[in-house]
Write a structure and sequence with these properties.
alpha/beta, TIM Barrel, 17% strand
Length: 289
Amino acid sequence: MENNLIINFTPTGMIPTKNMTPYVPVSVSEIVDDVHKALEIGITMVHLHARDAITGAPTYKKEVFAEIIGGIRKYAKELVICVSLSGRDFTELEQRSDPLLLDGNLKPDMGSLTLSSLNFNKTASINAPEMVIDLARVMKEKGIVPELEAFDIGMINYAKYLERKKLIQPPYYFNLLFGNIACSQANLLHSGVMVNDLPKGSHWSLAGIGKEQLRMNSLAIAIGGGVRIGIEDNIWYDTARTKLATNSDLLKRIHLIANANERTVMSSKDFRLKLNLQEGHGKYGRAIK
């Protein structure tokens, strides 16, 4: 349990489009601006997806991530930055690992690592064992910390397998995601079992898909965990789906709930210390030994 609240900001994702909500940031400038607003409200880290400038479709290309990261680090040299390495649209290691090749001031601190394949409502995210192992190996070689994504308890067990293989090492950061149709559901039993099964040296946040976002974020705040929050997982402000949310709307509500629970937001500086990340300001990820 953390005294201070980890807020993992997820502004864009792969699914929301401008047709679904005008508030989703898609272009480089929109994403950079939304992260700037979020930082002023208060966040610990940001989980970035990139979009193609012409089509708005998700892209893996490091050049687009470089523009986003460069834009953010002009004003936020200490913010912990994670890049998505999602398997929903991209199947080749060369594609999924492309953002990990960025270096210097553009190097991400973290990269997402979904620990197994899973089905969404209409699509699948394919994360074959070889792919998970190869991505973990690349991140270890580059000094980039995995953001471990688990949608059910079996994925946590696979993280322990990677630990035994010395492909990952503590301290860890887990995103535990609930409410997806084919995975752990958004209830106390599922969340409690998963949190209880995390390996030693783990920091964690709870995420809820769609209408479950507020429920799981509220639970995490109440029991000492962190939150994953943003339009990536939920475009609506209310469960009745009458009001579309901005990222700022969602973050401000999280701050109200955190204040009511007497929790303050963990700074990027403190999060860096907890994950053994370098201090920022030109030094990112973990030092390669």
